[in-house]
Structure to design on (261 residues):
């Protein structure tokens, strides 16, 4: 009798199935369910911005923790990051007791908002707070950001610290964010701030700063970054992570008590 036929007493398919056939059918069904669940899970992670990297960073976000407490209490307090050196891009007094290290993505709309906040912060705390800019482009969200980060480095290499900040300001002031900046505008900005356009284009096309940008991204991950902007307020040996873009008042709530110590 075929396993697909019912008995004379009206028993169904599963009633008359032989035990060994039941076992194999159940096994195949179980494997099928596992494959389906795995596919659904991977699909969900992909559409939420899941972006595995060599550093095992599972998820990156635009404007991580952009609302809420200024200090992300879930972040580790033992921040592992590269020390600030003379080779960093620093806005304000390099000897300021407090430095805000920002890991940023030029195409991130939250970074664009925070750029103005940190400019204001340095202006209000003259000589007390400096701003250190480091790159953390997220290509899974903004495919143009890595090359734009290299452009910032080219500007700095050709014109020094002042040119770096002038060029960076121009990019943040003009980009529509979310991959909206026309690449043809990038060398024009360099020319507008007085840099040699031909030398700038040669620098950008050479890829000479690709590795530096990648190293800064690795440093961001080591510092606990899971999105942009990611900030670390540095005061002596103390490093306070601030994950997300916040109003200036919330940065002040961290800085003011430190200055009183």
């Amino acid at each position: 009798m075929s396993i697909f036929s019912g008995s004379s007493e009206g028993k169904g398919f599963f009633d008359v199935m032989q035990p060994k056939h039941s076992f194999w059918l159940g096994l195949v069904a179980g494997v099928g369910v596992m494959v389906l669940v795995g596919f659904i899970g991977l699909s969900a992670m992909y559409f939420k911005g899941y972006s595995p990297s060599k550093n095992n960073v599972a998820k990156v976000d635009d404007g991580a923790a952009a609302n809420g407490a200024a200090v992300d209490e879930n972040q580790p307090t033992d921040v592992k990051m590269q020390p600030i050196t003379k080779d960093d891009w620093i806005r304000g007094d390099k000897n300021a007791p407090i430095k805000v290290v920002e890991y940023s993505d030029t195409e991130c709309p939250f970074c664009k908002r925070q750029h103005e906040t940190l400019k204001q912060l340095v202006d209000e705390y003259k000589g007390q707070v400096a701003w250190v800019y480091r790159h953390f482009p997220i290509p899974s969200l903004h495919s143009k950001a890595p090359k734009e980060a290299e452009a910032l480095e080219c500007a700095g290499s050709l014109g020094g610290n002042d040119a770096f900040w002038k060029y960076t300001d121009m990019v943040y002031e003009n980009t529509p964010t979310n991959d909206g900046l026309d690449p043809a505008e990038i060398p024009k900005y360099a020319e507008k701030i007085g840099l040699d356009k031909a030398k700038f284009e040669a620098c950008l096309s050479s890829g000479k700063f690709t590795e530096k940008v990648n190293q800064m991204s690795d440093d961001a991950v080591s510092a606990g970054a899971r999105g942009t902007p990611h900030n670390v307020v540095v005061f002596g040996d103390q490093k306070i992570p601030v994950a997300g873009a916040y109003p200036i008042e919330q940065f002040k709530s961290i800085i003011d008590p430190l200055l009183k110590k």
Notes: DSSP finds eight helices and seven strands in the chain. The first helix runs from residue 13 to 16. The two ends are 89 Å apart (CA to CA). The helical segments are 13-16, 19-47, 109-124, 145-174, 186-192, 197-206, 210-222, 248-259.
